[in-house]
Specification:
This protein is 25% helix and 20% strand. A hairpin with a 5-residue loop joins strand 2 and strand 3 (41-46). The chain is of the alpha+beta class and 123 residues long. The termini are far apart.
């Protein structure tokens, strides 16, 4: 039987702040938001059209608070791939969308295409 990863748990400070970021700024879809207890929820977000998602897990305690932003020990943790067709129109629109939302990024991935690398230079 084939196996696949379904959800990746991601520690967050607060559910609603994380939801705002993933849904409103990155454009992810909210797949589930179920209250489990008075202070614990099962919150799943994912990019549109994907099978996998992120389980947003609200931190509990100082140890988990210290792990926020360093959940992979300083390594790259999650990579979001966006298919861009056609390159010139979608690339400009996608880049403008990201920049207009003023997303803080530690590293901005260089956009690549099968067309030419010169179309992505300077991004």
């Amino acid at each position: 039987m084939p196996q696949r990863l379904n959800l990746t748990a991601l520690l967050v400070d607060e559910y609603d702040t994380a939801l705002s970021f993933f849904v409103q700024k990155l454009g992810f879809e909210l797949r589930e938001d179920t209250a489990l207890t008075d202070d614990k929820r099962w919150v799943v977000v994912a990019p549109h059209g994907t099978e996998n998602g992120l389980l947003l897990a609200r931190l509990v305690g100082d140890r988990q608070r210290e792990a926020i932003g360093d959940q992979s020990g300083g390594r790259v943790f999650l990579i979001l791939k966006q298919t861009i067709l056609p390159v010139t129109t979608s690339l400009t629109r996608s880049r403008a969308s990201v920049l207009s939302k003023r997303l803080a990024m530690n590293h901005m991935a260089r956009w690549r295409s099968s067309k030419t690398s010169t179309e992505t230079d300077g991004i």
